[in-house]
Design a protein that fits this description.
This protein is α+β, with helices and mostly antiparallel strands. It contains 10 helices and 8 strands. The strands form 2 sheets. It has a 6-stranded antiparallel sheet, sandwiched between helices. Strands 1-2 form a two-stranded antiparallel ribbon.
């Protein structure tokens, strides 16, 4: 049994999407274990590790190597992975990219936010981003940069840990209390070292979020990167999101974000949410 299996059992009752290990549902007859394992194989690939062998995938997923071999063969035949002839290692293929596009294209909130994000970026020089939670990470669904001096422009689909940024803190503190406590507990168990490093900032932003409805971070992920973020309720059927503004290597970043960027972010959120009836006149 994997060394962290006891930790998994402790969080097996969490209902937030993604915060469960497939092995915790082994006795659930409705749960398709083979499908879950195949998806875990796809998730083993990251921007930092885009090419992996079967052995490396097995190590990253805790799956037996023969199981991984069958899954990579199947996923390769279906067009979700490709195999390098020389190294015999795998990388993700176009089938994975094609799966994500219908989600992005159908997100009403993303379509409504785009022109407003462009306006904020042009007016302030910020990079403006839109993201949502994926397990213990933020995944970016849009990003706009109007000022070339701001070097921060994440790719759509890129991920960053929830714990290290204002956007992640908004997505944590914006949850109903039972779900928030469950997620925070999971984060402690998932990566205790990271939680210890960033928990103080998370607590400070919890007070700020409760009192003023935003989170602020400076230098946690990059010593010269300053960010401010607000919550954004998704359109009916869509998940909660967060919108942020970032300044890079800016002399008065904190003051500028709070005084100039924050009101624009809040106004944009109000306009978006009003458009689908969350703020009736």
């Amino acid at each position: 049994m994997p060394a962290d299996s006891s930790k998994r059992r402790n969080v097996s009752s969490i209902t937030l999407p993604g915060l469960i290990h497939p092995h915790d549902l082994a006795l659930d007859r409705q749960f398709a274990m083979t499908l879950a394992r195949g998806l875990e194989v796809l998730r083993a690939f990251t921007a930092a590790h885009p090419v992996l062998s079967n052995r490396e995938i097995a190590d990253r997923t805790d799956l037996p190597k023969p199981t991984v071999s069958r899954l990579t063969y199947t996923l390769g035949m279906l067009g979700y992975m490709s195999r390098d002839v020389d190294s015999q290692k795998y990388r993700l293929a176009s089938g994975v990219l094609a799966l994500g596009h219908p989600l992005l294209a159908s997100m009403k909130t993303r379509q409504l936010a785009k022109p407003l994000m462009v306006g904020i970026a042009r007016q302030t020089g910020c990079t403006v981003n839109l993201g949502l939670r994926d397990r213990t990470d933020i995944v970016y669904v849009d990003s706009v940069r109007a000022d070339g001096r701001n070097e921060y422009l994440p790719d759509i689909g890129s991920t960053y840990p929830l714990l290290v940024s204002s956007m992640g803190h908004v997505l944590i503190h914006g949850l109903p209390r039972p779900q928030k406590l469950a997620l925070v507990n999971y984060l402690k168990l998932h990566d205790g070292e990271m939680f210890a490093q960033y928990s103080k900032g998370l607590d400070e932003n919890g007070k700020l979020f409760a009192e003023q409805g935003y989170c602020l971070s400076s230098g946690a992920w990059d010593r010269e990167l300053y960010t401010i973020a607000v919550p954004l309720k998704g359109a009916p059927g869509e998940p909660a999101l967060s919108m942020n503004g970032t300044l890079y290597a800016h002399k008065n970043a904190r003051q500028t974000l709070v005084r100039e960027v924050l009101p624009l972010l809040k106004q944009a959120v109000h306009e978006i949410e009003t458009s689908y009836g969350l703020h009736p006149g």
